[in-house]
Amino acid sequence: GDSVTQMEGPVTLSEEAFLTINCTYTATGYPSLFWYVQYPGEGLQLLLKATKADDKGSNKGFEATYRKETTSFHLEKGSVQVSDSAVYFCALIRDNYGQNFVFGPGTRLSVLP
Amino acid sequence: NAGVTQTPKFQVLKTGQSMTLQCAQDMNHEYMSWYRQDPGMGLRLIHYSVGAGITDQGEVPNGYNVSRSTTEDFPLRLLSAAPSQTSVYFCASTSALAVFFGQGTRLTVV
Asked: Which of B35, B41, B98 sits opposite A105 (nearest CB)?
């Protein structure tokens, strides 16, 4: 079945460091890919998305490129801030099939001042 | 515009008790779903509904029931709570490749 794999956390970085959180997926067809962020005590919020191969999603300084050849959607940010501390979830949605999302296990990021 | 509203935020149950987690959305979305979030496992789909009167099972449906009598409401019922159901539960409402989540319900079964 469809699945999403993320790098294990927690990830601890100093402020202004470069961030990469790896995400790879297994899916039939052509899924749309997403990154969601969960701040402490809150629900998940959409961070960015890409709906087809080679698309780049971006928001709040974060970027991710849909790479069909490597089935990946790695999240990157050039300079993290303390306020970026959160749990990040990679997810996919199967095309043309309802709207069921498949989530990765989440990666906890802690940014130290 | 409230979005997705879940109640309660916290709940402690004894094994064998039943309860209903409430979820309401005001965006007129047809598709709603319930997930549980457990450490290291991400979110797993419990049940979902593609519209009023239509529900279906997700990945982990056992021990839970749902109904969808209106577009706005999608309650999740625990029939006989078990410690394995200790988790954080999220209701979601979906439209056009965008998922809107509620704030979550932290449930502990002792």
From this structure: B41
- Kindly write down the DSSP assignment for every residue of chain A, as one continuous string: --EEEE--S-EEEETT--EEE-EEEE-SS--EEEEEEE-TTS-EEEEEEE-STT-EEEETTEEEE-BTTTTB--EEESS--GGG-EEEEEEEE-TTSTT-EEE---EEEEEE-
pLDDT block averages, 10 residues each, chain B of length 110: 88 97 94 90 88 91 96 96 96 82 94
Q: What is the pLDDT of residue B94?
A: 85
* pLDDT (0 to 100) of residue A87: 93
Do residue B102 and residue A43 have CB atoms under 8 angstroms apart? yes
Q: Do B43 and A44 lie within an 8 Å CB cutoff?
A: yes
- Closest CA in chain A for residue B4: A43
